[in-house]
Specification:
The longest helix has 19 residues. The protein contains 18 helices and nine strands. Helix content is 48%, strand content 12%. The N terminus is likely disordered.
Length: 442
């Protein structure tokens, strides 16, 4: 009887020559650099240093710069791309841009699919086939994932000329019928957003602890499910479902959180009835779901696909990452970006800023304040920073939540938007367009 093929029999290869050829072509030809940084993703490359190099090249393209070794080193400072010596060797080894770059890009994508299957979905299928407890449904689901991964990855090749023209017009016609913009249902914020919580995109919502990240996100979730009917799943990874549900019940019922958490014995009969009605209303909302147990990153695709969610909130996302080294976080962010595309779902990641923010006079977050800032900034289509001056200065009478659009991939940075914050009732309230910042009280 033949020995079953197991994990130790799966070989993982990297076609170094082809990856280097594509990278060198991007460095030598501005048109290729511009096109490939828009059509490829870092996971098209298997080699870890090649992923890093591609991200830096994408940054160069996004800034409309030409490749230059000095610019490359400046943007890649602190990142492990193999040093200037490696980049120089690449350019020396491939002195000319290949005329058949489409062939090399297609090969790159095919190799990436093979690698992904060998270390991921295909291996899980092999393991399931060897597992006596695995049923036909398990095997069928994995086979579907294999087919989807192959077709999805290979559809992202180089597009030029007439094909690109027709593809663009088809996309524009689709937009005319149904806008891709997905609102947060906070009107002032939506005025400044280009895509909002668009499907297939990733947003990052960042602040120091206790500023109001979770409160804002459950307010957004509550609004988009009730006002806009968007199927949404909330993953309360850090705090668990009950505290988030407390906030939503307080928001809906108008009952102070202290009464729900600290002194529930003091609730009146009328208040208890309001709480019951609020909890019933929230749970009867078929567009809203909570993930109520520990979530493993490998479960995310199945959960999102089965629920066909338009928006998924991960609070806090990094709790799903097995190790906190920058390379591991970068790898999982790339996977998250691909998952958002594969599931056609918006992934909203709640994230904490660095502790160094506390040492500054102005504690409003910037992109540089993101932990592992470079990686988050690259992956995110939208980054919003949150700030409340009253958290640091209780003497200020107005508690205002400031929301700053720090980055949107297809729009401008739009400054800060102000809203009344009623944390004791789990509520982000009315707009404060009259607010000029904490300087009013200094």
């Amino acid at each position: 009887m033949a020995k079953p093929v197991g994990r130790d029999k799966i070989e993982v290869f990297v076609n170094v020559d082809n990856e280097q050829c594509v990278i060198a072509a991007m460095m030598r030809d501005g048109a290729i650099l511009n096109e490939l940084t828009k059509t490829l993703e870092p996971d098209a490359f298997i080699g870890q240093r090649h992923k890093v190099i591609f991200r830096i090249l994408r940054d160069i393209g996004a800034r409309s710069l030409d490749f230059d070794i000095e610019v490359f080193e400046q943007l890649g400072k602190g990142q492990d791309y193999g040093t200037r010596k490696y980049i120089t060797k690449l350019l020396e080894a491939y002195p000319e841009t290949p005329k058949n770059i489409e062939f090399h890009v297609t090969k790159l994508l095919v190799d990436a699919v093979k690698h992904s299957l060998r270390v991921g979905t295909l291996q899980r299928l092999i393991d399931a086939s060897e597992n006596p407890a695995a049923g036909l449904d398990d095997l069928s689901e994995l086979i579907q994932q294999v087919n989807k991964e192959v077709s999805g990855r290979l559809s992202a090749g180089v597009t030029r000329g007439r094909n690109l023209y027709e593809q663009y017009l088809a996309d524009l016609r689709a937009r005319l019928q149904f806008s891709k913009f997905v609102p947060t249902c906070f009107d002032w914020l939506d005025e400044s957003l280009t895509e909002g919580l668009a499907r297939g995109k990733v947003s990052v919502w960042t602040a120091r602890p206790s500023i109001g990240k979770s409160t804002l996100l459950w307010n957004i979730v509550y609004r988009i499910t009730t006002q806009y009917g968007l199927p949404t799943c909330y993953f309360p990874i850090e705090m668990g479902t009950i505290p988030v549900f407390d906030g939503m019940v307080s928001l809906h019922s108008g009952i102070h959180l202290d009464k729900l958490i600290k002194t529930p014995q003091e609730l009146t009969r009328e208040e208890a009835s309001r709480i019951n009605d609020a909890a019933l209303t929230i749970t009867e909302n078929e567009q809203l779901a909570f993930w109520n147990t520990r979530i493993d990153f490998n479960q995310v695709y199945r959960v999102i696909s089965e629920g066909r969610y338009a928006v998924a909130v991960f609070d806090l996302w990094e709790k799903m990452v097995p190790q906190k080294e920058q390379a591991i976080i970068s790898e999982y962010l790339d996977k998250t970006q691909q998952l958002a595309k594969d599931t056609n779902c918006h992934f909203a990641l709640v994230h904490q800023t660095k502790r160094g923010v506390e040492k500054r006079p102005n504690k409003r977050p910037t992109l540089e304040d993101l932990k592992n800032s470079g990686t988050y900034e690259e992956v995110a289509d939208l980054v919003c920073g949150l700030y409340r001056e009253q958290f640091y200065n209780p003497d200020i009478p107005d508690d205002i939540l400031e929301i700053g659009i720090l980055k949107q991939r297809r729009g401008a940075r739009q400054g800060w938007h102000y809203f009344n914050f009623e944390g004791a009732y789990g509520r982000v309230g009315d707009e404060r367009r009259d607010w000029a910042g904490a300087d009013d009280f200094e």
